[in-house]
Amino acid sequence: MFRRSERARQPGRCVAIRLDGEVVNVPDTLSVAAAVLHVHGWRGYRRHLDGTPRAPLCLMGVCQECLITIDGLPNRQGCLEPVREGMVIERQGDDPHG
Ligand code: FES
Fold this sequence. Notes:
Oligomer: single chain
Shape: globular
Bound molecules: FE2/S2 (inorganic) cluster
Structural class: alpha+beta
Order of helices and strands: HEEHEEEEE
């Protein structure tokens, strides 16, 4: 399925982001969605209303399963946003308004 690129596996190319209030270092080659998956795994991205996990599906801007709050703006497509140093990311539930 998906594999991390050779560049992403090289050490020393990381940025610090704040994910749900916690500072984490992630490779600078990742999208926001990939960074959250990198930290929390696919079961930790979002939840359906019944509590079952849901996660980004297409990683190319089609499915909308990656909606996330970035720098205070809710419902951003995490798969289309590259991570940046100091970015503030908050995972969302299923409330469409964040
Ligand atoms: S993962 Fe499908 S739109 Fe982002």
